Amino acid sequence: MRYLVRRLFTLVLTLFLVSLFTFAAFNVIPGDPVSLILGTEASADRVVVLRTHLGLDQSPGQRYLSWLSLFARGDFGTSIKYSTPVRGLIAGRLPVTLFLALLSFVLTAVISIPLGVYSARKRGSIQDRAIGATMMVFLSMPNFFLGIVFVWLFGLVLKLFTPGGYVDYSTDFTRFFGYIFFPALAIALPNAAVVVKFLRGSAIGELRSDYVRTARAKGASEDRVLYGHVLKNAMIPVIALFGMIVAEIFSGSIIIEQVFSIPGIGRLLISSITSRDFPMVETLVMYISLIVVLANFAVDIVIQLVDPRIKVR
Length: 313
Fold this sequence. Notes:
Blueprint: H1 2-28, H2 33-38, H3 44-54, H4 60-72, H5 86-121, H6 126-140, H7 143-157, H8 173-207, H9 210-217, H10 222-259, H11 265-274, H12 278-306
Helix pairs in contact: 1-12, 5-6, 5-8, 5-10, 6-8, 7-8, 7-10, 8-10, 10-11, 10-12, 11-12
């Protein structure tokens, strides 16, 4: 119970600091939303009226505290760029980004865990070196570049999907999945490469342990030793790594959505930063931060379930 209280306090403190740093950064970057909305030729009276309407006539501290008070009550404000409630705009785009992130995470796990275990089992062999070389290629390629390669290869050459032809999930889920699969794969492969190398090293370390030699001496098959004993212990540090990968997936999705023209919160975030739409930017950053913090909290719980001997403090 005490652990949960500490983690909840940490979660709230983290979100508070994220909101504070985002607000500070937003006030440092150059540009004025009033000038972007009215143009540079607008009259002084129109500028004053709009600044007052947007609350920009207040001090930075007053604006931050006002926004934070409304946010705590579930009111995310009105978008400066779209003149629409932030909640509605995010609600229409968040499911797309969440599905992209979830599919990327699943692909990362499905690709990396079998390859990592197989590579450890075949350590030093041709297969192991081939897997290592392939993972190094994906590890060295930024996901946005991999996305561009996928657009050319799978879209223009193989014609497995139409670049720029995004179909909403509410219209045709099959076509939506067929389109979203390739950007999800572009995000997953570099992350999977990290997990493969990490899991391979962890599994090789476990294979040298005394309990493995004891299990083999008792006649246990190699598969039983590997999947019944080694994998469980080797996965403990990898599970912690997956918590960090969640953040990487969300940061990667912001760029990938631009490459594949996906109308998710990534595109919304970039356009909002360009137009200095503070209510939208702050809310989106808070959403992403909340998901990452909750994912790491879930990782701690899973680690304790996998090995109750570990006490997460």
